[in-house]
């Protein structure tokens, strides 16, 4: 990353199509909606103050995306994960192929600064248990496992740390 100028900023409407077109989000689309529809919903939650959506960008384009959820939407409320006050959840770290892991580290550090400014004292992180590399990384960032949850198609591990 030496000499590479990386900008971290909040996502905006012009990023909606770029996130998939530039290879940041490459997973199959969510059930019952397109990625563009999902990203528009994230931006709506950001405008309402329930979510912060951070993107990393350099001269080559978008490099990654990361969310900080302050309050989960109706139907997904989980006060141990994000309660709208002092507990917030980090989710959705996606990096374009070939982007150095340091970009993800920098994004997590910035999200922690944003959380602190919002008086968040506990951060949580939710990861599918079939992603051992991601679980190792979250532990390296200082998060500790505190809960396992079964979903119809996967098992989720929840991690948390005090900030």
Please tell me about this protein's structure:
With 163 residues, the protein is of the alpha+beta class. It has one domain: Aminopeptidase, CATH 3.40.630. The chain contains 4 helices and 7 strands, in the order βααβββαβαββ. The protein has helices spanning 16-21, 35-47, 101-117, 132-140; strands spanning 7-10, 51-58, 61-69, 87-95, 122-128, 144-150, 155-162. A hairpin with a 4-residue loop joins strand 6 (144-150) and strand 7 (155-162). The longest helix has 17 residues, at 101-117. It comes from mine drainage metagenome.
Q: Short description, anyone?
A:
28% of the residues lie in helices and 32% in strands. It has four helices and seven strands, in the order βααβββαβαββ. The chain has a seven-stranded mixed sheet, sandwiched between helices.
Question: What is the secondary structure topology, with strand pairs?
Answer:
Blueprint: E1 7-10, H1 16-21, H2 35-47, E2 51-58, E3 61-69, E4 87-95, H3 101-117, E5 122-128, H4 132-140, E6 144-150, E7 155-162
Parallel strand pairs: 4-5
Antiparallel strand pairs: 1-2, 2-3, 3-4, 5-7, 6-7
Please, what is the average pLDDT? 94
The second-level CATH architecture is: 3-Layer(aba) Sandwich
Gap from first CA to last CA: 27 Å
Overall helicity: 25-40%
Would you state the CATH class?
A: Alpha Beta
Give the oligomeric state of the chains in this entry, treating copies of one chain as homo and distinct chains as hetero: single chain
CATH T-level topology: Aminopeptidase
What order do the helices and strands follow?
EHHEEEHEHEE
The tally of strands reads 7
- SSE class: alpha+beta
User: What integer value in Å does the Rg equal?
Assistant: 15 Å
Q: State the strand order across the main sheet.
A: 1-2-3-4-5-7-6
Helical stretch tally: 4
CATH level 4 superfamily: Gcn5-related N-acetyltransferase (GNAT)
Strand content: 25-35%
Most strands sheet: 7 strands, mixed
Q: What is the total number of structural domains?
A: 1
What overall geometry do the principal axes of the alpha carbons give? globular
Low-pLDDT segments, ≥5 res: none
InterPro entries: Acyl_CoA_acyltransferase
Protein name: N-acetyltransferase domain-containing protein
